[in-house]
Specification:
The complex is a heterodimer of chains A (306) and B (353).
Chain A (H helix, E strand, L loop, with lengths): L7 H29 L7 H19 L2 H24 L5 H20 L13 E2 L7 H6 L1 E2 L1 H19 L1 H11 L1 H6 L4 H25 L13 H11 L4 H23 L6 H19 L18
Chain B lengths: L7 H29 L4 H14 L1 H26 L7 H18 L5 H30 L3 H21 L33 H18 L1 H11 L1 H6 L4 H28 L10 H11 L4 H16 L1 H8 L5 H15 L16
Helix pairs in contact in B: 1-2, 1-14, 2-3, 2-12, 2-13, 3-7, 3-10, 3-11, 3-12, 4-5, 4-6, 4-10, 4-11, 5-6, 5-10, 7-8, 7-10, 7-12, 8-10, 11-12
The chains are: A mainly alpha (306), B mainly alpha (353).
C-alpha cells in the first residue's frame, strides 16, 4: 500500500470525474442535439431513470449488459419521441411537457422496476488503464468504462457532424431560424422530433451507465438529478459537444471533490462543493447576458432565449 | 368581429371539458396498460377513488397532500402572469422550510402564537427573496429566469443539505439528519374539526387573494399587460421591473410558505423529507390550471388525491406504490398535450365561426 497523502485528493477527483461524468456526458450530448434543433427537453431526468431501469432489467433477464445498454437507448428513444411529438402540437409548452415527462418517466421506471430492486444483474466491464501502477488509488482512478470512451468519441463526432454534415447543418438551421429552414423546404417539426428522440436515446444510455456500472445496481434513489442538470451543462458548454465533454468532467469532478476531501479528513462543506458548478454556470450567465443580448452561441429558436 | 368569438360560457365549458376529457383519456390508457399487465382496471379505478376521496380519512389525506401543491403552483402561476416562466419553486420550498425551522427553534421559548407567525413570515420572506433573485436577474441582466431559477434550486438544495447535515444539525438526530425541533407547542395544528393542517387554508386563501389581485385590481391589469406585451407596457409607462419583481416575490412567498408549513405543521424540524419534489409537481399543477389561481385548487386536490391513493393500491392489490405515479404521469402528458385542442373543437366555437 502506497501512502499518497494529500495527493489522494487530485487523484480521487480525477478518478471520480472519469467515473461520475459518463451519465453527465450522455445526457448533455443528448440535450445538446435537442437544443441545437431549437427545443428544450427538461424531461431527460425521467428518461435517464427509465434508461437505468430498462438497462438493468434487460441485463438481468438476458445476462448481457450490452443488450441492457441497447434497451436503455431504445427506451430513451421512445420517450424522447413522445416529447418531440407532444411539442409539435400547437400551443403546447415544451418546458411544461418536459416536467411532465420527468414525472411520467420516473413513475413508470419505479413501477416497472419494482421486481428488479433485489436481483443482481451482470454489469459492464471496465478497462484497467492503471494496471502499471502499484498505488491502489491510481488503479482505482484509472478503471475506465468503455461507455466513457464512447461518449468521448461521440462528442468529437457530433462536433464534427454539426460543422460538416448536411444533417448537422439542417439541425442547426432549424434551431437558429425555423423561417429560414421552412423557406429552404426542410420539415421543421420532423427535424426537431428526430433530434429530440436521438437526445432521448443518449440520455437513456447515460442512465444505463448508472445501473450497469456505477453505482451498478437499480434502486429508486439511483439518480441524483443528473438528467435535470443536463440543461445547465449544455448552457455551460455553450451548445458545443466537445465542451459538453469538459463540462461533464468538471461537474463530475466537483461532485467527487467532497468524498476525496473527506478521505483526507476535510469533512465540512461537502454539499457546497456540489453546488459549485451551478454557481459557476449562473455567474457565466450573469456575466455574458445583458437585457439587449442573449447568450452567445445559443440557438435562436430556443424558447429560453425569447 | 365579436360574433366570431365564443362567449364566456362557451369558453368556460371548453376550459372544463378539454382537461376532463384528457383526464378520461388518460384513465383509459392507464386502464389498458394495467389490463395488459393482468390487472382488473375497474377494480383499480374503484380503489383509487376510495383511497382518494371516499372516506373522511382518505379525503383528509388528499387535502393534506394538496396543500403544498397549491402553494408551489402559485409560484409558477404568478410570475406567469407577467410572462415569466419560473420553475425554481423547489428551492423556495426548501429554503423557506429551513428558515422557518431555524426561526422556530431560536424563538422556541417565546409565546407560541408569536413563534408561529414568525416562522410563517420568515419562510415567506426567504422564499420571496429567492424567486425575486431570478426575477431581478431576468429584468436587469437579461438572464433567462427559467434556467436561473432551476440553477438556484440546486444551490438552494445544496445550502439546505449543508446546513441540515452540518452547522444546524441536531446532534440527537442520528439516522435522519434534522435541525433542532421547533417544539410541540409551536407546531401549527390542524384546522378545527379536521385532520388537515392549516397549509390548506393558507393555500386556498392565497389563491383567492391572488385571483382578486390579478383579475380585479389595477396592479393585476398592469401585470397582465406586461405578460402580454412587455414593450407596450413600457411604452405605456408601466413600471415593468417593479411589476415583474412583485409577481416573483408573491410567487416565491407562496412556495416559501409551503416549506414553512411543512416544517411547522408536519415535520417539526427541517430534514430531507422537505425535498419531496413539491416544486416540480407544482409546475404541472399550474400548467394544468392554465396559470389561473382559482383553478389551481381543484387541480391540486386531484393530484393530491392520486398520490394519496397509492397506499390503498399497495395494501389491497399488492401493486407498487409507484402505480399512481404512472397514472399521474399519463394524465399530465395527456392534459398538457390537450392544450392544442383549445379553439379547435367545433362544439365550443362561436356560431358563425
Amino acid at each position: 500500500m502506497v501512502e499518497l497523502g494529500w495527493w489522494g485528493v487530485p487523484i480521487g477527483v480525477l478518478g471520480g470525474a472519469i467515473r461520475v461524468s459518463t451519465p453527465f456526458l450522455f445526457v448533455s450530448l443528448g440535450e445538446c442535439i435537442t437544443e441545437r434543433s431549437g427545443r428544450i427537453n427538461l424531461g431527460l431526468e425521467g428518461i435517464l431513470i427509465m434508461g437505468a431501469m430498462s438497462g438493468y432489467a434487460v441485463s438481468y433477464t438476458s445476462g448481457n449488459p450490452w443488450l441492457g445498454v441497447l434497451a436503455a437507448g431504445g427506451a430513451g428513444l421512445l420517450l424522447g419521441l413522445l416529447h418531440g411529438l407532444a411539442c409539435n402540437l400547437p400551443r403546447v409548452n415544451d418546458i411544461a411537457v418536459g416536467i411532465g415527462l420527468m414525472l411520467f418517466g420516473t413513475g413508470l421506471a419505479f413501477f416497472l422496476g419494482k421486481p428488479y430492486v433485489q436481483p443482481k444483474a451482470p454489469t459492464l466491464p471496465s478497462i484497467p488503464f492503471g494496471a502499471w501502477s502499484d498505488a491502489p488509488q491510481i488503479r482505482a482512478a484509472l478503471q475506465v468504462n468503455p461507455l466513457f470512451l464512447m461518449g468521448l468519441a461521440l462528442a468529437i463526432g457530433l462536433g464534427w457532424a454539426f460543422r460538416n454534415t448536411r444533417w448537422g447543418l439542417v439541425v442547426r438551421m432549424v434551431g437558429d431560424s425555423s423561417d429560414a429552414a421552412r423557406a429552404m423546404g426542410y420539415p421543421v417539426p420532423r427535424v426537431r422530433t428526430v433530434s429530440t428522440a436521438l437526445g432521448g436515446a443518449l440520455a437513456g444510455i447515460g442512465g444505463s451507465f448508472l445501473s450497469l456500472y456505477y453505482p451498478g445496481s437499480w434502486s429508486e434513489g439511483l439518480s441524483s438529478g443528473q438528467g435535470l442538470m443536463a440543461v445547465a451543462l449544455v448552457i455551460f458548454a455553450r451548445w458545443s459537444p466537445m465542451q459538453c465533454f469538459y463540462a461533464a468532467l468538471l461537474f463530475g469532478g466537483a461532485g467527487a471533490l467532497g468524498p476525496a476531501l473527506q478521505s483526507v479528513g476535510v469533512t465540512s462543506g461537502y454539499y457546497l462543493f456540489n453546488a459549485a458548478p451551478y454557481v459557476v454556470t449562473l455567474c457565466i450567465m450573469i456575466a455574458t447576458c445583458s437585457p439587449r443580448r442573449t447568450l452567445a452561441g445559443a440557438p435562436g429558436e430556443l424558447s429560453i432565449n425569447r | 368581429m365579436a360574433s366570431d368569438r365564443p362567449g364566456p360560457w362557451r369558453r368556460a365549458a371548453e376550459a372544463l371539458a378539454i382537461p376532463i376529457g384528457a383526464l378520461a383519456a388518460a384513465m383509459v390508457v392507464f386502464g389498458l396498460f394495467m389490463a395488459a399487465l393482468g390487472h382488473n382496471p375497474l377494480e383499480i379505478y374503484a380503489l383509487i377513488y376510495r383511497g382518494a376521496f371516499a372516506s373522511a380519512f382518505s379525503l383528509q389525506n388528499t387535502l393534506s397532500r394538496a396543500a403544498p401543491l397549491v402553494l408551489t403552483a402559485l409560484c409558477v402561476a404568478l410570475p406567469a402572469q407577467a410572462g415569466l416562466m419560473v420553475i425554481g419553486g423547489e428551492g423556495a420550498v426548501v429554503l423557506g422550510g429551513l428558515t422557518a425551522a431555524v426561526v422556530g427553534h431560536l424563538l422556541s421559548g417565546s409565546a407560541p402564537t408569536g413563534v408561529k407567525v414568525a416562522m410563517v413570515v420568515a419562510g415567506m420572506a426567504v422564499g420571496g427573496g429567492w424567486i425575486a433573485l431570478a426575477g431581478a436577474l431576468r429584468q436587469y441582466r437579461g438572464v433567462n429566469e427559467t434556467i436561473s431559477s432551476l440553477l438556484l434550486t440546486y444551490v438552494a438544495v445544496a445550502l439546505f443539505n449543508h446546513f441540515v447535515e452540518g452547522p444546524l444539525r441536531d446532534p440527537s438526530s442520528l439516522n435522519k439528519p434534522s435541525t433542532s425541533p421547533i417544539g410541540d407547542v409551536n407546531m401549527i395544528g390542524s384546522l378545527p374539526g379536521l385532520d388537515v393542517h392549516w397549509g390548506l387554508a393558507f393555500g386556498v386563501a392565497f389563491c383567492v387573494a391572488m385571483h382578486v389581485l390579478v383579475r380585479y385590481t389595477t396592479f393585476g391589469f398592469a401585470l397582465r399587460i406586461v405578460g402580454g406585451n412587455p414593450r407596450a407596457a413600457r411604452l405605456a409607462g408601466l413600471p415593468v421591473g417593479r411589476l415583474v419583481l412583485t409577481a416573483c416575490v408573491l410567487g416565491g412567498a407562496a412556495a416559501g410558505l409551503a416549506g414553512a408549513v411543512e416544517v411547522a405543521a408536519v415535520h417539526g424540524s427541517a430534514n430531507a423529507s422537505l425535498i419531496a419534489g413539491y416544486g416540480y409537481a407544482g409546475i404541472v399543477v399550474a400548467f394544468i390550471a392554465r396559470q389561473n389561481p382559482l383553478a389551481i385548487v381543484p387541480v391540486a386536490v386531484l393530484v393530491g388525491g392520486l398520490s394519496a391513493s397509492g397506499g390503498m393500491l399497495q395494501r389491497r392489490l399488492d401493486l407498487p406504490d409507484a402505480t399512481v405515479l404512472v397514472l399521474q404521469g399519463i394524465a399530465f402528458m395527456m392534459i398538457l398535450g390537450s392544450e392544442a385542442l383549445y379553439g379547435r373543437l367545433k362544439l365550443f366555437r362561436g356560431r358563425t365561426a
